[in-house]
Amino acid sequence: MNRSPTIAAARFSSLLPAPIHPMQARLLALVAAHRFATTTQLARLTALEYASPASALRQTQRHLASLAQQRLLTSLERRVGGWQGGSAVTIWAATTRGHRLVAAENGEDEEVPRRQRPREVSTTFLDHLLAITEVRTSIEEAVRQEADTEVAVALEPDCWRTALSPSGQVQVLRPDLAVTITSPAYEDRYLIEVDRATENPGRVIATCWRYQEHQATSSQASDGGVFPLVVWLVPNDRRRHRLERAIAHSTGLLRDLFRVIRLDQPAHPDPRRPRRHPHPTTHQPDKG
Questions:
Q1: pTM
Q2: Residue 48 and residue 23: Cα distance in Å, rounded?
């Protein structure tokens, strides 16, 4: 027997997620964008909305539990290493329902690309994705401490860059993050590569050459005439020294285009900031 239009419409409406709290929408969007984030990371990213870090953590836990109850988020209890010291933490991922809601909120096609189920992601890849979330969190926390300074972070795939290689082929660079730190006088731009010491330095150098080739052919207006500094974030000093030596010994590679620093020190990706340029609103002397 066919259902009446009224019953069918009511059943369809029941399948749609109800409007959610603005903070829950923000948390859901953060998790969907990063793929994975811990409770603590999410509390730190939204800390400015609360009176204290303790309040931020408490309220974030409450909002995340509500999102899980609505089947918009799912949680993993996994032990991760690296920046988290091998401790067990609660890790959040958006469900298909959650991704669809974020897409709808952004006015995008609600068809969600097929991805691995959160529990099928390897520990190594999960650790890498959480490290990227940690870098973004640490940078935003650091910028909050600087007066009249803002940060804009682009995640994959929005931070990817395309250019023609010397052979005329389209080349795609896939940094983990693109970061722009803006003060009243300057804009500092960085392309961030999170290195987990799982690849031979030779592969890192090959990627450095691709960045250098891209710099030579790049015409992206957003760079303002200054190619971003490429920052390799590594887990320890041993890896840092190894990559620094590899870059220094690569004849023809522009050393000033790259920096290698430890993953636990991303707050100031490059203290010397050799590739900064004046903010567009800064007065420039007339030429000629």
A1: 0.81
A2: 12
